[in-house]
Amino acid sequence: KKINYTSAFKYALFFKFRVLLAFLQIRKIKKKKHIVIDHTIKQNCLNQQTLKPEPGNYNLQYLFDKLDNDFVILDEVEVPKFSQRNSFKLHSYYFKVHKNRLNSEYVLFMGFCSGIVRKSTKDRANELANKYNVIKSELADPLDILIINLLISLHASSKFFLFKYFAFRKFFGEYSFKTISSIDENSPRIKSILDAAKLNKVYTFGIQHGIIHDLQPNYHFTAEDRKRNVTTDNTLIWGNYWENKLYNQANYPENSLKIIGFIRTDIIPRLKNNENQKLFGLNKDEQMIVFASQPIKDADMRRRVAFDVFAGVKNMKNCKLVVKLHPAEMNDVDYYIDIANDAGCSDIIINGTTDLYLMISKAAIVITSFSTVGLESVFFNKPLITIDPLKQDIQSYYKDKIAFQASNSAELSDCIQGILDGSLLFDQEIYNNYLSNQVYKIDGNVSNRCIEIIKSHNKSNE
């Protein structure tokens, strides 16, 4: 693959300056007890006090705002791919010095400077490469062969995550942290850090940040996985439904789940006191329909879903369609414009920067496929439509009777019209019961409960 040398040069500068800044940060973390990882792309989040948008971590910002001096935030920026089609962008917030943050590039740099880390990485990577061939020679099933070939093709990534693991193992061996917490705890990017922490007797917390469905292998384990203790020591989850699902279907260890609620909802009590704000210059007669798009892995299905939404909305009077881009789609504006033009729907707004909860709070209808946004629309008592061409009902929104289902543009138009004219109504009691089962409390105090649980582990070990 051709290398994007501009991106490579930008990242080299980025890495150098972040390491230099970290030498100023590292002196201030020796007495810290707890780490929380910040690894998401910054998005506009509403400040809880002013309700003004500020760049932040969409999932954990309200937790970060309440952390005291016992905590340090590990600022983790993903190492980019340097292929021609990928672009690494520099942002001013990468280079700010915060007293309670540490740039993860420091850990990688110190790992690279360590002969032990380099040798351990090389030895384990070679051992892994040899295992591939042994495993492949014993396989006959075409699907098994496909999987092992995929693993072989990703060996460079595996080697990097091994290096990251050994670098962080060295780091945790030099400090005395009590706990480390993160969302996305089962991805290789984060698990390589958490496993290194575990080896050094640092207690690990995973934090639920999205809906967990049956097609997510990184939240479903076998009985053997449970014996090997591959999950975080505790996982902080939203509510009773998720506790039952993870214990009964996903093989999570007994007593490893703690219910706290959904951190992101801490803004909702403030938003409900701000009903009069208008968005996007809509007049008082226009109804805003929010389509929460997703980077669906099946490219044909992704396009079909978007086309059906545009085609289904284009003839709706006094309605404005707003496409709320998924964080992984920030460079896909032209993609959706092209599909909208093909569908004959030109009067749309495509937005990736406005706070999602602010948009939902002002919406008349929310449309999605199987995004967590479907659940979040229930937080605001908004009518939900799932656009579901194959009627898979992946998140069971339709089965649970909190969404209307449309499999094509005509059905979508009928659903929208029915909601707007009052002939389609959701059952308020079902909404309330669903919500109480999914999310413990929406009271503005989820972050406080999260901090209390993390700190309680520290007290129990003092």
Describe what you observe in this structure.
With 462 residues, this protein is α/β, with parallel strands linked by helices. The protein folds into two domains: 5-262 and 445-460, 3-Layer(aba) Sandwich (Rossmann fold); 271-438, Glycogen Phosphorylase B (Rossmann fold), CATH 3.40.50. Helices cover 42% and strands 14% of the residues. It contains 17 helices and 15 strands. The chain has helices at residues 5-25, 61-64, 104-112, 115-137, 142-153, 155-173, 188-199, 223-227, 240-248, 268-271, 299-313, 333-342, 356-362, 373-379, 409-421, 428-438, 446-460; strands at 34-38, 43-46, 53-56, 71-75, 101-103, 179-182, 203-207, 234-237, 257-259, 287-292, 319-324, 348-351, 365-368, 384-387, 404-406. The strands form three sheets. The chain has a seven-stranded parallel beta sheet, sandwiched between helices. A six-stranded parallel beta sheet has the order 12-11-10-13-14-15, sandwiched between helices. A two-stranded antiparallel ribbon has the order 2-3. The N and C termini lie far apart (53 Å).
